[in-house]
Each structure stands twice: as structure tokens, then as C-alpha cells.
Amino acid sequence: MGIPSELRDMFISNNKNSFLIASPAEKRKILRTKQCTSEGVRAGFKAASIACVASAVPTLAAVRMIPWAKANLNYTAQALIISAASIAAYFITADKTILECARRNAQLEDSLRHSQ
């Protein structure tokens, strides 16, 4: 099942050295896309770091002070609570940042198209 290794290697090498040359406008678009993605990753990492601390402090404090939490939240549950908050913050923030950047790029593209 699958693609034989010779065909796979040929396909991969042909994609890297494509006979089509990207226009300068396409290259700018690709560069802006990469910048949006890296901006989203940075913003997501910052949000995840803040969410990690913001969820770890009350979770760990509750496990030491509240009898119900002490009895029912083992180490795995604590880790799941903290990581769920961090993961959610990362993806929500990264998604919002990338969409905002894409909107800015679309407006820039429209303004460049209308000015010419």
C-alpha cells in the first residue's frame, strides 16, 4: 500500500525544483503568510505561558487547602487542568492573531490593487 519509494522521491524532488517561477507578488504573499504564522505562534506562546501560571497557582493552592480537591484531584488531574488551560489559550490566541494578520494583508492587497 502507498507510494513506492522511487515515485515518492521523484515527486518530492520535482516539487522543490518546480518549473514554475513565482512572481514577485506571489513571493510577497508567501512572505506575509509566513510572518503571520510566526506572529501567531509568538502570541500564542505568550498567552499559553500566562494561562499556565494563571491556572497553576489556584489549582495547586486548592489541592493543598480545599478538602474536596485534596481528595479528588490527583497529579494527573492537576496536570490536565493546567495543560487544558494552556492549550486552549495558545490555540485561541494564535488563531485570532493569524486571522487579524490575514485581514490586514487582504486590506493591503485591496488597496494596492485599487491604487494601480
What's the arrangement of secondary structure elements?
Elements: H1 5-16, H2 24-65, H3 67-72, H4 75-115
Helix pairs in contact: 2-4
Transmembrane segments: 47-69, 75-94
Keywords: Membrane, Transmembrane, Transmembrane helix
Organism: Abrus precatorius
Largest sheet report: none
Shape: elongated
Helices, by number, come to 4
Query: Strand tally, please?
Result: 0
Mean pLDDT: 86
Cα-to-Cα separation, first versus last residue: 52 Å
Briefly note the structural class of the backbone: mainly alpha
Radius of gyration over C-alpha positions, nearest whole angstrom: 23 Å
Strand content: under 5%
Question: Can you give the helix content as a percent range?
Answer: over 70%
Order of helices and strands: HHHH
Low-confidence stretches: none
Transmembrane segments: 47-69, 75-94
Keywords: Membrane, Transmembrane, Transmembrane helix
Pfam families: ENOD93 (PF03386)
InterPro entries: Enod93 (IPR005050)
Protein described:
The chain is an all-alpha fold and 116 residues long. Helices cover 87% and strands 0% of the residues. It comes from Abrus precatorius.
Feature tags:
single chain, about 120 residues, mainly alpha, 4 helices, elongated, membrane
